[in-house]
Each structure stands twice: as structure tokens, then as C-alpha cells.
Amino acid sequence: MSQSKQHKQQAYRLNTGGRIDRSRTLSFTFNGQHYQGHPGDTLASALLANGVDIINRSFKYSRPRGIVAAGAEEPNAIVQLGNSEAAQVPNVRATQQALFNDLTACSTNGWPNVQRDLMGLVGKLGGQFMPPGFYYKTFMAPASMWLTYEKYIRKAAGLGRSPMEADPDSYDHFNQHCDVLVVGAGAAGLAAALAAARSGARVIVADEQEEMGGSLLDSRETLGDKPADQWAARVLEELAGCENVTLLPRTTANGYHDHNFVTLHERRTEHLGDTAPVENGHRQVRSRLHRVRAGQVILATGAHERPLVYAANDVPGNLLAGAVSTYIRRYGVAPGRKLVLSTSNDYGYRAALDWKEAGCDVVAIVDAREAPAGDWVDTARAQGIKIISGSAVIEAKGSSRVSAARVAKIDIDAFQVSGPIQELACDTIASSGGYSPVIHLASHTGARPAWRDDILGFVPGLVKGVQACGGANGTYALGDVLAEGVEAGIRAAAATDHTAQAVSLPSTDYLQQGPAVALFQVPHEKPTLRGPKQFVDLQNDVTAAGIELATREGFESIEHIKRYTAMGFGTDQGKLGNINGMAVAARCLSRSIPEVGTTVFRPNYTPVTFGAIVGRHCRDLFDPARYTALHQWHVERGAEFEDVGQWKRPWYYPQKRAGAANGERESMAEAVARECLAVREKVGILDASTLGKIDIQGPDAREFLARVYTNKWEKLAVGRCRYGLMCKDDGMVTDDGVTSCLADNHFLMTTTTGGAAAILEWLELWHQTEWPELDVYFSSVTDHWATMTITGPEARKLLGEITDIDLDRDSFKFMDWRAGKVAGVPARVFRISFTGELTFEINVQANYAMHVWQTLFKHGETYGLTPYGTETMHVLRAEKGFIIVGQETDGSVTPEDLGMQWAIGYDKPYSWIGKRALTRPDTKRENRKQLVGLRPKDPKVVLEEGAQIVLDPKHAIPMPMVGHVTSSYYSPVLDSGFALAVVKGGHQKLGETVYLPMVDGQTHEAEIVSTIFYDPKGERQNV
Amino acid sequence: MSNAATFDTRTDTAIPVESPLAYSYRHSGAPRAGDSSRLQLRERAMLGHLILRGGAIVLDEAVRDVLGLNLPGQPQALVQDASGERSIQWLSPDEWLVIVPGGEEFPLETKLREHLGSAHFAISDVSGGQTVLELSGEAAQELLMKTVIYDVHPSNFPVGKGVTTIFAKATTIIRRPSEERWELVVRRSFADYCYRWLLDAAAEYGVNVEQ
């Protein structure tokens, strides 16, 4: 079956049978070759139908690999999908990808290509030089070389690649709530869903396959004397008609999180094309991540068949026995012509029976048991199939496809070949070592699985609110599976307060089965370490010899063995190999499997695309952007924006450079200098709407304020405003702002922009938990008011043109507020100042803000009204020594450290938040870092914010650091750099020189000065 | 009358106003998917919004006399008058949201304050700070499932219910005034984010924005 020649079309497609639509043909491309398949095919079944043997090269040894399984457990057939760069999807299992017309896929592994692989040489020559722990051992040193090694290792390993272009599709998160979530729509899941649905519970059924029905879709058994798939169809029809049931096909439960929160990855359009289709002119959503909060969860995830571990069991043509049946019965493909089956149990016989019925040649069934007996064994005998008992396939022959099976009698207990070896010519070897319940989801919850000797497998540990039934619970006989499903459904419904309704189950054939034998690794005539490779984990190229070597090197814990060998890593999560690996470790360590224990499966069960994980939280919806009512104006004015929390605040407004022909705009420094001077000399305007505003009402509002602020409030008269400083209970400054007395029982508090939400919660917390006796209520009015700050010597004249408020300096004083109309709009105007200039803060209902702002500009031209942003605001306030919480403070700064003793009311008649902490020895310590001004000796220097301050630059390293710069700017009015800083004992160090050694080797000199650089008497704001 | 400052922030003159979505309409447009639309989105702008805080018993008396509505005492309840124009929604054990036609909020506040006299309560006008986005159409419930974490299934979210919950990465008040309509009360500063989110999430259904 050389792949270089033109293929006979679908040479391995059966003429009848399966659930595919032979009347329609689909074209697809794999590794550049064109093939055909049918609707109903997976990419894997279509590749098998076309006789494509090699799908990939293996991860480490670069050995050719073919399809092994038919579902999620497929370790080899991992492909890269996508016709265009933007549509690339890595890590898709060909066994889970529905075929669609023009599907394009290629191998994820194999450099330069799968057929003639450069790394194959390394695999052959270097294989023995790549023992487990190879990377750790070889690439450890020198550490600097790792980046070089990694580049080649990654390229050689090739686990698919992400697209280099933007994804054209959209993805959703979908919040779901239900009483009962059923994972898996096979026999158990359908029975459970039916029982739960009839009770009236809200049910979600998620199934990862293209078609719901699970093993019923390819079963040999009958239900109610009809093919099993007919029962599945009837149940699905009933469920689809129930309003309380949501059926989610093509949906993988990928993670089971705390409190029955399960995430489901629904592939809505992946079966239709490379990108989502457009319906009615609207592009559909490609996939959804359902975030399900379930009352009860039923895990009906079935079981994965275990392959037997024999030599060269990775050569293409080695398949799971159950997968052979699935390909024949569900997809109408026989993945070969001549079959040898190696089994340890009765279920494996199914493959041989199906194979023969498909008209192909069963060379032999090799059964590890001495005296197999059971209904299917009898059927096989009756059909004249040769059964070789007490034996196993010990080695596959062939390089790019199986050419023969070496079969021998084995002694399982002694772990040795006990008879002569015969070679049977064949092209396919199917193996079955029994079934492992799919316990991955249950493991995500942290519950430990338990080993059951009777079924030779782990059953899931279960947390509250979850049940497992059917194969997932180690129950395999169809009648038992259905009964268990119904029972689980009824229990789940009852647990969510629904009354069960009768569910009558169809009759099943009782299948007589002989006991299975515990066979995992098959002995070879050579010792494991010297014989041909026996693969345990095909995806990660972990061999039985590798595990044996790991145990010899002293690794005894299965978790260590896993990490040392890479068994069960990555996207595979140990679906096929884990139990076999534990069995090998158990043999080497002379322990039992439960003693060795199992590793922990982690989300995701199968890979989830980043698109689905991200949903809509990307690009311009990554995070909320909060806008003020004036945002449009700022945008049109060309403002650069600064993120303050989630707010977009104008940072500065660069203008076109005077005389610049090419429309070049000012630099930030130029714009800020211009804006600063405009405020100091004329008038500037700031959009201050983002400041937090809290409406406080109640007879005890005043006392409440005095308890949460450090300063006093009892004498603040109606019509007056006061600056307040707020500490946490540790005495450290947490917020500040101006609070105004609107009426005796009514105050308006302002907070920092970033602190608004947290401060409201803080007030509620203290009111609700500590001082419920105080009659006071709080409501956020931040968004209700738009705040426009006009500031500068011309502010009064400007405002005077458009207001009916008396602005006379003696009747409307500094720290007063007045109500009236501005530009015809009712407004509250506050005479408070963050710049040190004459300032009016105009507050209007936000819907009127644009009108008022524009009116101010209509009248402002005469006065040189200049909009300024947060950067200019920072410079101006720093010139005045006004702090910004979060910049001058970092949660370790007290009011006294800031030199704000005037804002502390130690003699208030009741305690207030932070008072006690401020009397601790540490907060009273003299050598605390205290806020000072810094004037660089060289006025051209603008110190770096965060720069460390030392007293002696010649001190040996490490130099004692006494503080750091908290704010630093260039001041246009001073024509000098200046800074605020915290320095140990700084308040006593005025006039002293300090040093700031920089990364580039320079050391700056600065003098400790007052924090007030401009207008120290505060005359300008009082005019 | 309680000792609080009241302030009518509205003016009668023909002064232009801008709803919280004014910027969004300019920036993101107002799509019209036409007949293929399965979702309608409409801003109910410029309504009067008051936050009422106080004890349920005194507030109930006041709103019954002044507004002719019972104060919803049950958590997550929403009551409306016959026209649907006036509503009161439970927000927390001592907090209610009153929404009335724009311009009614100040007279209402004044009358409530008169009625409540010296009782301890608070009324805050937040009309400029939030807006109502109304969703209707067959895809409305699905759109909400993409958007809010709260369970909007009819069995859990009947008509007459309202909750405060997560809206994507913001918060919202969500209400169901009738079988066909859902209302989202969103903060002004988050309105553009919410609008863009809803347009994006509803694109697959086709969305008609009524301006």
C-alpha cells in the first residue's frame, strides 16, 4: 500500500453497511494528496477508506504512525486543519473531525514530510540514545544553550502550529443552568437522560461525537429485538421534543470544576467548513464554551479499550479491536484485508466477527486465555475462525504497514514466552486488553479513582452531586448499562426535587461471557530492555522499556515515573496508555496496580481552541472601557488617552506644531508644558467626571464621615466643602477627596477615580458590620454627574459669562459650593482646587454635559481656554505638593508620613478608622519614610520615578537606601525638574543633599525641599 | 421634610441632551438587519431613575400613596403600573430602583420626601448615570445567556423579576417587564462597552437597533 502511487478510490470502503451516505461524495486533501469520502465519515474513516496508512511521525523517535482508535482516545492521528492561514487549527484528532467538502489537513509531525522523514534517521540511529529523561540529561548544560536546543527540539517534535493571521470567526461563552447534566449520549447516558427528562427536570445532554448514540451506533446487539441504534434514535427523538431538554451534539465536556461547574466545548460549525458559515447574511458562531452550573451531574462517558503492549505495536495497521468494529459497522470501512486479533477477553471477539461479516479474512484469533468460553467465542468457532489459545501476538512485523504477526504461547504469571513462535502473515493486528472506564472528568474534581479487580480497571471517585453509570462505572453488559442509566437519572431528578416517571427498558440479549485475563504488557522472547520497542504511550513515545528503566533509576511514585518518561502528558492525558503504564511499573516494582496507583487527569479532556476559551473577551471587548459623557469631544480634539482603572481619561491634547507643514503634532512634553502654562496664566479645563461620587444621607451622616475620615466634620456648614483623608484600620492612607455639606443630613463625598467602587463597599462594610446604629445611607452617583473643572486666573470671568451664580470672591469663597445654572443647565459649582489656581468645578447631570462643555468653549476663546489632561493635572498638583493616593502612597504611608498632621483629629469624641493604629510605636517612629520635595541640583534633570535615594553615593554596595522618588516632572513655571519623594526621617532633613544613583552609572544630586514648589502661601486659589 | 438637599437637575429649555449611547451610535453605528433580524435592541433613554433606601414598611406606605404602586417586598421582584411606564425594583433589603418617565423624578422625589417626613430614608437621583437597554425578539434569551451569568431560563426568570448580576466583565441590573421584553439597566460609563458587546454577541442573529 505505497502512498506515492495514485490511489484506487476508497479501496477499503465496504459496499454496504455503516452510517455514511454513499450517494454523495466529498473531496478532501491530506498532506497535499486529494481523496474522497462520504457524508458521515470522519477524517480518520475517510483516510482508512483510501488506504492511507501513515498519518504522522512519532513525537520522539519519528516512527511512522497510523490510526489506532476511532474516538477521543486516538493518540497518533493528530492533524493540522485549515485551507488558509487564518483558518489553521492545530491538534485536531482525525477520529473526531467530521469530513466536509474541501477539508484540508496535514500531519502535525514529520519534518520535512511524513513519508520521508529526516528525523526518522534520528529515530533509527538515535533511538537508543534517547532514553527517558533524555532532555533532562542531555540538554541540562550549559543552561545558555537551552534556547538553541529548544528551537530544534520543538521543530522536530512539531505539535501543530497556531495561525499567523487573525481568526475570522467568533466564539461565545454560554451560561447554562440545569438540574441534570448528562455527559455522554451512549446507552447509559440516553437512559439516564430519558429518566431525568420525564421527571420534568431541566436536562442538558452533551456528547462529543458527530452523532449521539455512542456504542449503540455500531453495536452487534439488539434492543427490543431491533438493532440497538433504532432504540437510540427513538430516545433521541423523544428528548428532542422535550422543552426541558437541551441536546448538545459535538460537545465535549472538557473540564469538571468545583461545585458541579462543568465546561462544555461545543463545536457548532467545525463539521461544516474551515470557517463558520453565513446564514441569512449573518456569520454564525464557530464554537461555544458552555459554562454549565448543574444541580446533578451524570457521567456516562463510557470506557476506552486498552491495547495490548507488544513489540512494534505502533506500526501502522495495529488497531484497537473495538475501533476495527466501529470502522466497519459505523463508517463502512475495513481498515485492512487480513486480520489477526490478539485479545484477553470476550469483547475483543467482536472485531473478528465484524471483520468476517465484512467479507475480509480473519487469519486467527489469538486469545491469552487457556480455555476461552462464551457466546462470541462459540460464534467465532462456529464460523470456522481459527482460535489460538493461551497465546498472544508478541510482535508485529512490517515497517510502514503490518506485514505479519509473531504469535507465541505465553506464561502471564512468569512474564515469559513459553512456546514456539509462529509468524502469521496479515496486514492488520487488532488487540484488546479489556476496557478502562473513562474517569477523566471525575478525576478533575480531585476525587481519587478506585481499582476494581473484577473489571481490571479504575472506577471514578465521586464528589457530591455526581454519579457515574455504564461503562464509566465499569458496567459493560448492555442490559445492566441501561438499568444503571435509568437509576442514575431517577436519582438525579429526585435530588433536584423532581418526581420520577416510569421508564420501561427494552429487552436485551443476555450475552454469556467468559472471564477476562489480566494482560497488559505481553512478554517477548527478549527482555523488555533489549527487545524491540513495546509502546505504552504512543503519543509521547513512551515504551515499556522506558518505564522499566525509570523504575531501575529509582523512580517509584507513578507521578514521578509519569514526569520522567512523559507518559500521559499533553493533549493525550493518558487515555490509552496510563493503565498499561501503571501495570508495567507495577510489574517492575513487584507491586499491584492499586498499590502503584494512578496519576491525576487534568482538564482539558481533549484540546479546546483558544477561541472558545477566550469567547468574546478579546480585541476591543477584552476589558470594559469606561467613557465620560464628553468622550466624543476628547476624541475629536485628538486627545491621547490614559487608562485609569477602566476609565479612558484624556492624558494630554497634542496640537499641530505651529508652522509644521506635514501636520506633525506636539510631543507629550510640549503639549503638557503648554497646558500647564495655560492654567497658570489663563484658564484650563479638565474633564473630572471620573472622580468617584457618593451621595450620603441620614441624620448620622456627619458622624459617620468623622469615623471614616481622619479629620473633623462636626463644624462643616451647609454650603461648605472640606478635604478628607481616609485610612484603613492599619492607619495607612487609602483614599482622599473633597466632601461637601449639601444639607445638615446630606453630604456628597468624592473619592479617587480608581477607588470609587472599593470605597463605597468600604463604607457599606463598616456601616453594616460595625456601626449599624448609625442612621445613614450611601448611593453611588459617580455616573450621574459630569464634572468640568475650570481653573486659572481667568476662570471667574469665563464662568461669569454663562452662570447666574454670584461669583463674587467674598460671597462664593474658596471651599464653598453653590447651586445655580451654568449654560442654562442646573449645576452645582464647587470652589475647590487641585491646581492651586482659582477653580470652579461645575457638576451637571451627565446628559447635559456636552452642551455645557461646548458652551464653555464658545465663551472661552477670549480667555484662552485650554483643555488639559491627566498629565498636566499631575504636574500642577505636584507643584502644589498635593498627593495622589496610590502614587505618593503605597499602603504603608500614614497621614503623618505625608506631613498632614493638620488632617488628623486625635481629639474627636469617638474613635475613627485608623486612630488606634496611628498610635502604635511603629507608626510613631521618627525614622519613617516621610514625604518631601526634591529639587535636582541640575534643573534640566527630571528624576526617574521610583529612583532610590541614598545619603552617601560613595558607600560600598549595597548602599543603604533611604527612600525613593514618588512623582517627578518638569515644571514649566519653575523651568526645572522637581519631584516628590519619601525619605527616612525626611521631615527633619530639609536643605540636605541626597543622591540618586541610576542604572546608567550617573548619580543625580538633589536637595530636600518643601513639598510646595509653587505659590507656597496658597494665594492664587483664594483670589 | 428630611434635612436633605434636593436639586432638580433637569431644565425645561430646549437644551440639547446626549444619552449614554450617543457616542456609541456615532462610533459603532446602529445596525438594521431588517427582516432577518431575530433581535431588537432599543435604548430607553432619558428616563427618571431614583434610588430609594430605607425601611420597607415606611417606604411602602409612601410609594403606595404617591406612586400608586406597592413596594416589592420580595427579593428580586419588579412591580410596574398598568402602563408599564413606572416601576419599582427590589435591589437589596433596604434598596429599590424606581424608574419613571423622564422629568417625573424630581416631583416624585419631592412628594416622597414630604410624605416620609422625619423617617430615616434616602433618595438619590441617578437619572444621568444609567440607561435602559431593551431587548426583544426570539433570540433575546440566548443573547442574555452569552452575556449574563444569572439563569435567565423562564422557569427561573419569570416576568416581574429583576436581579443585579454580571454583564460580561461589567455589572448590570436585568429585568423582565413582559414575556417579550427584557431590560438591562447599565451604568452610563459602561454603556458603550455593553452596547458593543450586545452588537457583537447578537451578530449571528441579525440585530435591529431602534434609535
UniProtKB/TrEMBL annotation, chain A:
Ranges for domain SoxA A3: 532-613
Keywords: Aminotransferase, Oxidoreductase, Transferase
One protein family per Pfam: GCV_T_C
All residue ranges annotated as the FAD/NAD(P)-binding domain in the record: 179-455
Keyword Lyase assigned: no
Residue ranges of every copy of the Aminomethyltransferase C-terminal domain listed in the record: 929-1015
Record family assignment: Belongs to the GcvT family.
Transferase keyword on record: yes
Any one of the GO BP annotations: tetrahydrofolate metabolic process
Organism: Halovibrio variabilis
Single GO molecular function: transaminase activity
Gene3D superfamilies in the cross-refs: 2Fe-2S iron-sulphur cluster binding domain, sarcosine oxidase, alpha subunit, N-terminal domain, FAD/NAD(P)-binding domain, Probable tRNA modification gtpase trme, domain 1
SUPFAM superfamilies linked: Aminomethyltransferase beta-barrel domain (SSF101790), FAD/NAD(P)-binding domain (SSF51905), Folate-binding domain (SSF103025)
The GCVT N-terminal domain, residue ranges: 630-908
PANTHER family reported in the protein's UniProt record: AMINOMETHYLTRANSFERASE, AMINOMETHYLTRANSFERASE, MITOCHONDRIAL
NCBIfam families to which the protein is assigned, alphabetical: soxA
Protein name (record): Sarcosine oxidase subunit alpha
Gene: soxA
InterPro entries for the chain: 2Fe-2S-bd_N (IPR042204), FAD/NAD-bd_sf (IPR036188), FAD/NAD-binding_dom (IPR023753), GcvT/YgfZ/DmdA (IPR028896), GcvT/YgfZ_C (IPR029043), GcvT_C (IPR013977), GCVT_N (IPR006222), Sarcosine_oxidase_asu (IPR006277)
UniProtKB/TrEMBL annotation, chain B:
MF terms in GO: sarcosine oxidase activity
GO annotation, biological process: sarcosine catabolic process
Annotated InterPro entries: SoxG, SoxG_het, TrmE/GcvT-like
Cross-referenced Pfam families: SoxG
Designated name of the protein: Sarcosine oxidase subunit gamma
